[in-house]
Amino acid sequence: MKTIGILGGMSAASTQLYYKRLCDQTRGRLGGLHSPELLIRSLDFARIETLQATGDWQTASALLNHEALALKKGGAELLILATNTMHELVAELTSGLTIPFLHIADATAGAIHAAGYKRPGLMATAYTMEQGFYTGRLRDTGLKPVLPNPGDRAETHRIIYDELCKDITTDHSRKTYVDIASRLADQGVGCLILGCTVVGMLLSQSNSPLPVFDTTLIHCDQALDQALA
Fold first, then answer.
1. 116-214: in CATH 3.40.50.1860
2. Do domains 4-103+217-228 and 116-214 have the same CATH topology?
3. Which CATH fold topology does 4-103+217-228 show?
4. N or C: which terminus of the chain has fewer CB atoms within 10 Å of its end residue's CB?
């Protein structure tokens, strides 16, 4: 089993989901007392959020690259970044990195193609929905992502930062997310990408009007595939 390096803390809520999913899946696949070989670097998200809000991507890039190289030096044989939004900095983050890096959008796109969908809706942070680094990568694979309307994008983003990243879930926000997903369904999309690693705290296959592709779960499962290959 290869050691998976997880660069996380963005937010801590989602990194906890990564750890649980990887543990559950390893035990499910190997049985007994098996658990994954992991190295986790969990950053202070308040610092990262400030860099996002002020547009200081250069400082964020240097920080993430330093941490990625440290994980490799510490023994990681495969690296995953436990956040969709910060994949904006993948080129800089992986500079000098000599171990495989599993991109969350590539993993998700592969799962969507395998299921036969072409036109997914995307619910994520405003950065991920609007800045092009993520939707462009999906389009490069042949997908045609569809975004919520501007008001729904703003509310999706607000709930992520004001609530989910703080481990807060409410019935009101859950209904809001279901309603946003329903409006995407009305636009004719075939499935829904939970494009922030915490959106699955409110939406899942049990309450979504569309087939769900949870990026957190997909990312973990494909990372484990590689670790066990």
1. yes
2. yes
3. Rossmann fold (3.40.50)
4. C
Residue-wise DSSP of 8-56: E-TTHHHHHHHHHHHHHHHHHHH-TT----EEEEE--HHHHHHHHHHT-
Paired with 194 in beta bridges are: 123, 214
Domain ranges for the chain, please list them. 4-103+217-228, 116-214
**Which of these is catalytic: 15, 26, 83, 125?**
83
Q: What are phi and psi of 98, to 5 degrees?
A: -115, 15
**pTM (predicted TM-score):** 0.95
Distance CA 146, CA 168 (A): 27
CA dihedral 48, 51, 53, 57 (to 10 degrees): -120
Please tell me which residue in 26, 196, 216, 220 is annotated as part of the active site. Answer: 196
Query: Which candidate, 166, 167, 163, 190, places its Cα nearest to that of 177?
Result: 163
The reply to whether 128 belongs to the active site is no
Tens digit of each residue's pLDDT (9 = 90 or more) over 2-33:
999 999 999 999 999 999 999 999 999 999 99
| 196 labelled catalytic | yes
